[in-house]
């Protein structure tokens, strides 16, 4: 827990004074006051984060973490576990949706094996942080040991540091792991204190019957494993996943470095819930990319107090929503930094 | 009316078969079926428009048209008319929000003087299509003659043709004209058959008292000028504006060339209503960029049968929403054209 605690202690509140100063600048730009709506709110938030009224985005990262889940044995997913491994190869070759969208917005993909079943041989660009070949089924016992939970978070922290060293000024979160809406529903239910039934959806497309089985599996697992609601690491160990722990680590590591994090859909939001549980200041560094169709996502967003930037009816994951949202955040930074003021442009202000 | 009629007759229905074929391709891509939500719908629509399952966006245009409005004499705007002229200079120098956002998404701005008060001298990049130095106040008589209305539409058609010649594959609409929510509310009320009170908002930020005056001015103007509800050119002449006519022409000209058009906020949607009134097939070529905070916008969108892509609480105009939406449409084209299929990537399909 040493690295984790060190990061948690280094997290600083954002500079609220910069919110006001950024708004002052926004009000001097050649447009009616407030007329750029949410772009202005984003620009202010980025100003407060970066301690400047002219926030900039240089390099952009999407950290895409993959892991497998023992709980898929319980028939909670529409796809076989093998797909995680196959999709990692697809990511490495650049053929998946997140590759296309990251190229579109100019973000670099950091592809991380957090715990995929099977061994990869010389896959270019794949970062090896494998904790184990998939979690244990939490329908039978804990998903992982406490040591593994800590290890997965540590890996995420180190990836965030690498992004910072590489010159990234914003990190989007992405994930791939067949079955990972199941741990995400479990985590969301525990942290937001909402009924499992309300936070459990159809994932990549299971039937209503399978969804009921999924609810029952989660319910049983929580009763049996008894995660400590106050201890995020215990929740992760009992009902989490390696990629979820890794992403929680990315959030902690990024925020400790002062970087904003763009949460994608339901699974990455569950990871963010774990991080916020450890230090609530983290909330102020998060942007929520889009509204997932998973029913638990709304509860998780309410807990974070964030409105998603996009609502495109997407439910793919991989960081696809985060990539699109990064472009909107970059646009907002350019607005506040590049637009002319009324004075500079000789434009009359309102009556 | 010769040029207009020629264009209206050349407009072809989109290829509905391509919608199916595009969906077939989308379902073979390495993602759960339908999981990219609205990006998939956009990709299908672009496929049908471009008659291909791999639609492409090459050059992107934002056509930004400016004009002044005699009705500002009635105190319907928070800004003086001079601001239109001043903002055109700001656009030409690249300091406005639309310049920043167009650069961000890689679109070229076509800046057009449709009828700004005052004369411009050697403004680089400004396209001169000035019909007159502002419309007449439609609180007193028609905003313009029928000849001027036709002339403004013709100018728009020619700009769309220029965009096509320049290699543009999509056109976003933008506008600048102090007072132009007033004619837009009038047009929207007439075409959608909704009460003036319901479609009239606070524009760039007037008081509730001024809003009531605005409603009263529009009501009086329609009673006096008696626009023929069935004749879009007559509506434009009686209660429209030069930039609104120009933008209606851009829509007609673009669609005649088979190009999709991205409508921005309330004013450009009013222009699109005029175009659709002349040929309802045009609907299938439109994308609606964002939900404006102007109350009339929802009614106009309902009439077009379109859901906006973004909801960022924006009310600036200039094409700012259209620029952001163009990037989402381009992303959708890249998804269907660049992603790997299950077969290509050796990924298992769902159970």
Q: How is this structure best described in words?
A:
Two copies of one chain form a homodimer. The first copy, chain A, has helices spanning 2-10, 16-28, 37-50, 82-93, 97-105, 146-165, 181-192, 208-225, 232-239, 242-256, 266-278, 296-304, 320-338, 342-345, and strands at residues 59-67, 107-115, 126-128, 168-176, 261-263, 286-288. By secondary structure, chain A is of the alpha/beta class. The first copy, chain A, has two domains: 2-55 and 335-345, Orthogonal Bundle (5,6-Dimethylbenzimidazole Phosphoribosyltransferase, Chain: A, domain 1), CATH 1.10.1610; 59-330, Rossmann fold (3-Layer(aba) Sandwich), CATH 3.40.50. Chain A has a six-stranded parallel sheet, sandwiched between helices. Chains A and B meet through helix 3, helix 4, helix 5 and helix 13 of A and helix 3, helix 4, helix 5 and helix 13 of B.
């Amino acid at each position: 827990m040493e690295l984790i605690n060190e990061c948690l202690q280094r997290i600083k509140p954002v500079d609220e004074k910069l919110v006001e100063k950024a708004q002052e600048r926004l009000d001097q730009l050649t447009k009616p006051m407030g007329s750029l709506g949410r772009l202005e709110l984003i620009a202010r938030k980025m100003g407060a984060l970066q301690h400047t009224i002219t926030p900039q985005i240089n390099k952009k990262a999407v950290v895409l973490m993959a892991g497998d889940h023992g709980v898929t044995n319980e028939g909670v997913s529409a796809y076989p576990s093998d797909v995680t491994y196959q999709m990692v190869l697809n990511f490495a070759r650049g053929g998946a949706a997140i590759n296309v969208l990251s190229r579109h917005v100019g973000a670099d993909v950091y592809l991380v094996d957090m715990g995929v079943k099977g061994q990869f041989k010389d896959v270019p660009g794949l970062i090896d942080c494998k904790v184990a070949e998939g979690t244990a089924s939490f329908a039978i016992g804990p998903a992982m040991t406490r040591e593994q939970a800590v290890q997965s978070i540590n890996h995420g922290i180190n990836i965030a540091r690498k992004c910072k060293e590489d010159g990234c000024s914003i990190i989007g979160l992405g994930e791939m792991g067949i079955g990972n809406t199941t741990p995400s529903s479990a985590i969301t239910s525990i942290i937001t204190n909402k009924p499992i039934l309300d936070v459990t959806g159809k994932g990549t497309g299971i039937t209503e019957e399978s969804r009921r089985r999924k609810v029952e599996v989660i319910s049983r697992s929580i009763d049996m494993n008894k995660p400590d609601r106050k201890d995020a690491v215990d929740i992760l160990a009992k009902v989490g996943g390696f990629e979820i722990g890794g992403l929680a680590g990315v959030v902690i590591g990024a925020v400790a470095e002062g970087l904003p994090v763009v949460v994608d859909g339901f699974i990455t939001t569950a990871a963010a819930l774990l991080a916020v549980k450890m230090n609530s200041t983290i909330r102020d560094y998060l942007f929520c990319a889009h509204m997932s169709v998973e029913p638990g996502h709304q509860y998780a967003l309410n807990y974070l107090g964030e409105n998603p930037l996009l609502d495109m009816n997407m439910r793919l994951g991989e960081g696809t929503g985060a990539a699109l949202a990064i472009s909107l955040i970059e646009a907002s930074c350019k607005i506040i930094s590049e637009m002319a003021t009324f004075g500079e442009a000789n434009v009359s202000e309102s009556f």
